Amino acid sequence: MNSPLYEYSWLILLAPLFAFAVIVFGTRPWDLRSRGQRYRSYADQAAAEADQSAHSDTHAVETHAEHGDEHDEHDLEDDEDPQVPHLTTAARVSGYLGIVIMAFACLYSWLLLLASTGVLPIAPRLQAAGIHLNAISYYWLQQPIASYYVSFHLDTLGIAMMVVVTTVSLLVQFYSQGYMENSAGYARFFAYLSLFAFSMLMIVFAENFLVIFIGWELVGLSSYLLIGFWINKRARPAEDRLSPASASIEAFIVNRVGDVGFIIGIMILFASTGTFQFSDLAGPASNHFSVAYNFAHNQGLLTIAMILVFCGAIGKSAQVPLHVWLPPAMEGPTPVSALIHAATMVAAGVYMVARTFPLFAAAGPAAFQVVAWVGGITAIFAALCALTQTDFKRVLAFSTISQLGYMFVGLGVAGSAYGPGPGMFHLFTHAFFKALLFLGAGSVLHALHHAMHREVQDMRLMGGLAKFMPITAGTWLIATLSISGFPFFAGFYSKDTIISLAFKNGYYGLWAITLLTAGLTAFYMLRAFILALIACHDYHPIDLARGRICDSRLLDGLLQLHPARSSRSEHYRDPD
Question: Of 148, 226, 376, 468, which one is least surrounded by beta carbons within 10 A?
Fold first, then answer.
């Protein structure tokens, strides 16, 4: 009999769904009702004071004429990011609920990891095949020729991914309390985060292609909602930036292109074997549902099917040529960037290939070669793109694309001796240092936004921030060294494993690509660190007038964030 610790692991899956339901049907309506009552009283107070302020109209007109452009820009920012003077109790409860629920899921997942590896003797080690979670598994539809089974499963691979998803989700939700403070859509934002976490955990717990595809599409839906969260924000053609609404549509459509191949591959497998179950498909030739039995004389069709399944991973993990959606997705709030680009949505493709590793191994050599070479080409292509970026968050976006390519190289070159281990190892380490990079970038952009009363993402307009934000600079440097593969940091070990396996197994072209990409990564990440946080030069006055943060007057604003926030909160418009 399995330990209750493993049997009740389904609570981790349902926890964020519970938080989502409570926020959507409970605290969110409560927030809207409370907000309406509060602002009706504010409107009455403002009407009573209108006559007293009438004598200052002439002065206001003169001030606007003198600083018209500046005020127009500030009003634009307020329209794009509607603020409320104070969060209601219901909005705060929404945030607290999401954090508490995710903290429970995170703690439980870490207990599972430590127990399954024998570090904590609170339960026996989990068997290699894992366990079936009967409590939440059921037959959706039974037919004489086929059965559709919604089933969930727990094993060591799933636990490792579960730890990544819940830990990063918890950090992002905790961070969002400050980053989204006074946002008009505060409760809605936490509802979306909870839905996203549930969708990813459904992929992690899935025991067959049917369930994993449902989670796959739910991830696409929730990422669409999160990327387009700032629905009022306008495009910035001069900076080659889409509006969040357009970026979310692009992400959704590009991922559907990859999903066409994904579902065709699944249907080929199902039509040939009559099952969606991973355990049956990967079974021995004596199992009449296995690919070894059904594709014994047609391995070419199995190879085509697995390459089509990989198309889903190409879209979800932003590999060439379906990488185009990821950089524009930076238009969402920075916590969303950390969640999507660090540990969850983009890592889903890597996890799916790792989960179906036995099926790729049963296919022809071309299947793994496609995985490895798509990853290798993407890794160096995205690294070269990152060299030329000046947008702070886009450097991290192309960095993510490049590192995902590393993971696919690790899966493609490992062979049966190592299995999905090398690719998943880099996924695990990358999730944490990339989340640290995004959250650190968010700290910088948030501070600059309040100090300068406008959005600044161009690294050429930054510099010299380390002395004002020493903790952010220190943590960013640690993460930069790790992603660069500096010795004794986590990224060094996971990257070195992939590079050495490429050489050991005779993939000399991929070895050269991954080795060169490692050097490029160190260059563009240190470049971003120096431009944004270290370098500060004496600029021409016209540069300072355009907003160079090295101007001491602007840096003084970093020490006065609360007054700046208070002045902005006077402007309010609810987008909902």
Answer: 148
**Residues of 90-114 as b/e, b for ≥16 C-beta within 10 angstroms?**
bbbbbbebbbebbbbbbebbbbbbb
Residue 71, CA distances (Å) to 75, 360, 455, 565 in order: 6, 59, 14, 15
The tokens for 314 are: 């190409």
Alpha-carbon distance 302 to 308, whole Å?
10
Q: In 3-state terms, what secondary structure has residue 144?
A: coil
pLDDT greater at residue 489 or residue 565: 489
The per-residue pLDDT for range 455-471, each reduced to its tens digit, is 778 888 887 888 888 99
Q: What is the DSSP string of 538-552?
A: ---HHHHHTT-TTSH
pLDDT tier, 62 (very low <50, low <70, confident <90, very high otherwise): very low
**In whole angstroms, what is the distance from residue 248 CA to residue 230 CA?**
10
| Tens-digit pLDDT profile for residues 396-424 | 989 999 999 999 999 999 988 899 999 99
Q: Which of 94-103, 146-155, 518-527 has the lowest mean pLDDT?
A: 146-155
Peptide bond preceding 422 in cis form (omega within 30 of 0): no
Backbone phi and psi for residue 479, each to the nearest 5 degrees, phi listed first: -65, -35
Q: Which residues of 249-273 are buried (b: 16+ CB within 10 A; e: fewer)?
A: bbbbebbeebbebbbebbebbbebb
CA gap 516, 288 in Å, rounded: 46
Q: Whole-angstrom Cα distance, residue 369 to residue 348?
A: 20
Give the span between the Cα atoms of 135 and 121, in whole angstroms. 25
Q: Report how far residue 433's alpha carbon sits from residue 92's, in angstroms, rounded to the nearest whole number.
A: 29
**Predicted structure pTM score:** 0.86
Distance of CA 121 to CAs 105, 111, 126, Å? 20, 10, 12
Distance (Å, rounded) from C-alpha 481 to C-alpha 572?
42
Alpha carbon distances (Å) from 368 to 57, 171, 412, 415, 456: 71, 34, 5, 9, 42
Judge contact between 81 and 231, C-beta under 8 A. no
Tokens read off for 215: 């989670």
Beta-strand ranges (E) seen in 42-165 are: 131-132, 138-142, 147-150, 153-154
DSSP output for 210-266: HHHHHHHHHHHHHHHHHHT--TTPPPBGGGTB--HHHHHHHHHHHHHHHHHHHHHHH
Other beta carbons less than 10 A from residue 459's beta carbon: 22
Q: What is the pLDDT of residues 152-165, one digit of tens each?
A: 999 999 999 999 99
Q: Among 259-263, 327-331, 430-434, 449-453, name the most confident range.
A: 259-263
CA separation for the pair 481, 521 (Å, rounded): 10
**What whole-number distance in Å separates Cα of residue 408 and Cα of residue 158?**
18
Q: How far apart are CA 109 and CA 167, in angstroms?
A: 9
Nearest CA-CA partner of 400 in 475, 346, 480:
346
Contact 207, 137 (CB under 8 A): yes
Taking the C-alpha atoms of residue 438 and residue 444, their distance in angstroms, rounded to an integer, is 10
